[in-house]
Amino acid sequence: MITKSDIQDASTVASGAASQAVDSVASSHADAFIWTAHPARERVNHALLAAIAMFAMAGAVYVSFQSVAWAVASLVVLVFALNRFYFPSSFTIDRNGVTAKYPLRRKHISWNRLRRFVHDDHGAYLSTRAAASRLDAYRGIHLLFGTQRDQVLKHIRSKMRSGSDHE
After folding, report:
1. How many CB atoms sit inside 10 A of residue 136's CB?
2. What is the pTM for the complete model shown?
3. What pLDDT, on the 0 to 100 scale, is given for residue 10?
4. Which pLDDT does position 24 carry in this prediction?
């Protein structure tokens, strides 16, 4: 027969195990810099302009095809095309490399593979190729700064090998 003390002991063991799991996750991310970027929220005017343009395109599709389904489909395609702008993306810089978690995919590149770093006001591009190429879209990782521009630049520069930082 299960007693009340057995249930309390099991509860204590379970909460202790959960606490240890949380502690190990936190310690593995202790040296990581993690941030989230949501461009539509950070640049509301641009988001509104893009939304107006998307609805105008959907309206043009409706007028052209006389079909609500095609108009809605065109909106869905445009939202998917602008997913990094309209939905939040999260990024992690740690001792292993850089990880980007976009709404539709995840990408990781280790520090020893990175050869080039360029940036502007809104984001950075880290590439595995030393020189610009048509393959850049498939070989690198694009980071959005969000509201953390200075911190991201500081962390990337500190992790990249000396002499490989190009602006």
Report:
1. 16
2. 0.74
3. 47
4. 31
Tell me whether residue 167 is in a domain.
Answer: no
Note whether 79 and 89 are same-domain residues: no
| Structural domain for 54, as ranges | 41-83
Hey, what amino acid is at 5?
A: S
Asked if residues 94 and 33 have their Cβ atoms less than 8 Å apart, the reply is: yes
Work out the pLDDT band at 164, boundaries 50, 70, 90: very low
Beta strand 33-37 pairing with 140-144: unpaired
Cα–Cα distance, 12 to 16 (Å, whole number): 6
Find where tokens 């950075």 sit.
124
- Do 117 and 54 lie in one domain? The reply is no
Work out the burial of residue 61: count CB atoms within 10 Å of its CB; fewer than 13 is exposed, 13-18 middle, 19 or more buried. Answer: buried
Residue 8 inside a domain? The answer is no
One domain, residues 63 and 110:
no
Q: Exposed e or buried b for every residue in 70-81, given b needs 16+ CB within 10 A?
A: ebeebbeebeee
Q: By the 8 A CB rule, do 66 and 10 touch?
A: no
Residue 102 belongs to some domain of the structure: yes
User: Structurally, how many domains does the chain consist of?
Assistant: 2
Q: What is the pLDDT of residues 58-79, one digit of tens each?
A: 999 999 999 999 999 999 999 9
